[in-house]
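Question thread 4412

I'm putting together a teaching handout and wanted feedback from people who do this every day. The idea is simple: show students a protein as raw sequence, then show them the structure tokens that encode its fold, then repeat with a second protein so they can compare. Below is the first pair exactly as I plan to print it.
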Amino acid sequence: MFLEGDLAVPEGASGLILFAHGSGSSRHSPRNIRVAADLRVSGRFGTLLFDLLSMREDEYYETRFDIGLLAERLDAATEWVRGDAAPAIIRDLRIGYFGASTGAAAALVAASHRDDVAVIVSRGGRPDLAGPSLAGVRAPTLLIVGGNDTQVIELNRLAMAQMRDIAKIAIVPGATHLFEEPGTLDEVSRLALDWFERYLA
């Protein structure tokens, strides 16, 4: 299986952030592209946006919500970053995950089995779908949720209660699930950058 991705690394970066998109999305997600660009501006972080599913796999609802499969793909991408096939510039960088929607659950599941994931940020995520893996997450985790996304706020709170390490919920006022309202995605980038600078840089 070959998955396509877009890698960008500023010179002198100290960390690499792997993006796990949500169901029905891809590495072309305009919101993830925007956040990734904002994170790179700091000069501290590179980003890898990649497709968790092939085009054929993404046609099926069941595959889009197969959290185990999505986590395996993220884990495989992380292994690639650490392997000889990856560009030398990224092999020794500290790793963080940025997950959206179902991609957040995949990030938490993948991180629960790894010792080299330093930090996780979730945007409008469904961490509850990570199930029992939540208790095994050791990376400091920030759960960003829209203030008007009331059901997902509650799901995030329930998930955070199952996490044993550092975890925090940040609510963006006026934002719905996709953070399409003016200024809300800017706040996501600000919160994410602060969290990554605290735990990844």
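The second pair follows. I'd like the answer to focus on this one:
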Amino acid sequence: MLIESIRLELRKKSDPSYSIQRWFKEPIKAYNVRSADVKKIAKDFFPKGPTCELIDACDALWASGYMEEGTIAIEWAKKAKLYEFHMLETWVYKYVKNWAHVDGLCCYVIGPMLVKKPEHIDRVKSWTKSSSRWKRRSAAVSFIFPVRKGLYKEHMFDIASSLLKDNDDIVQKGYGWLLKEGCKKFQKEVFDFVMKNKKDMPRTALRYAIEKMPEELKKQAMAK
């Protein structure tokens, strides 16, 4: 009943003038509901029952394949702090198929989970070896939340090193973003990493990594 009510509301909020697809290269299954409306629906329909029922509802939303339903599942997991690792890894492996779901799930759920449960760090780092671009990006983006808090510097560089020569721009942007966030706490170390590896580092990743650096450091990093 809950899921059907949500789907009815999503259909009501569908906007014929709005296309989610324009933000993505891969095909997206969507109601074409604007982000603010999706978040309001997630808030209004948040389950108040036991955690097991919440997880079942999230799984049902993910399984539909609709962009907005996956986003609601992420919003609920964030609100409820669903930090059960096996469940989150299953979502990454089974359902996450675009950059928006990667970034939402990894920044706001898996990242905070890693701060609370560091025993899962190595497993998340192992995603860098996956054949899936979404899993490799997930490995990088999952560490953005901890790095913003000044944590896990060594893991940030391990991930960047593992993904250094990745030829997928989605992944390059992911680990470049991680380094950019790391620059706010560890500017010298990130700069040194970039300078050491810039011959092998794709320009997309490099530009992301140095975006927040002072102009003089940017010039040095970009110089051939």
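Top answer:
Good format. For the second protein you could add a caption like this: DSSP finds 14 helices and no strands in the chain. Residues 1-82 form one domain.
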